Amino acid sequence: MENRLFDAFLNETDPVYDIAFISGNGVEYWHNPNANSCNNSHSATKLFVASAIGILCDRGLLTPDTKITSALGGELLPAQMPEGWNDVTVKNAMMHKMGIGEHDFCVDDDDAREKLGDDFLSAVLTLPLPFAPDTERHYSDEAYYLLGRIIAKASGMDPVVYLRENLLKPLGFRQ
């Protein structure tokens, strides 16, 4: 994107740290190099996902010890999964302790669909688990992708709609 558009935006607003525009060229992103690292907005969605999981647990629809495979239900699971997936819990996913190591699924990766295909759920659930669940912490987008799918299954709603109705509106958030 031309710098003049970013400059115009910055002149109209309070200081910002990240900007994303949708243009004819797709999504264009700019990060303010002068922003301090305490204001990094990456993974903010994970906070909302964790809040939705908390609400579902509070309402008795899940527990932290609920197995991922049980929460997703049999019809969503791939036919073959590496050993260990049946032991992964909601808590393991929230703490990034599912047992995965290096991974290919990253929301910041523009070609994830090319690498993984259209079935992200099967792509994630067929990743090998080189570590036993709850033994090692490896930050991953896979964990919170699975939690998003669990929110949809447990609530019967799209996670965005669930959050809007059960967290954002009660707190007075607007568009």
Structure commentary:
With 175 residues, the protein is mainly α. The chain is 41% helix and 7% strand. It has 8 helices and 2 strands, in the order H-E-E-H-H-H-H-H-H-H. Strands 1-2 form a two-stranded antiparallel ribbon. Strand 1 and strand 2 form a beta hairpin. Helix 2 runs parallel beside helix 7 and helix 2 crosses helix 8. The protein is globular. The two termini are 26 Å apart.
Quick overview:
The protein has 175 residues and is mainly α. It is built from eight helices and two strands; from the N terminus they run H-E-E-H-H-H-H-H-H-H.
Set down the secondary structure blueprint.
Elements: H1 3-12, E1 18-23, E2 26-31, H2 44-58, H3 68-72, H4 90-94, H5 112-116, H6 120-125, H7 141-155, H8 159-168
Antiparallel strand pairs: 1-2
Helix pairs in contact: 2-7, 2-8
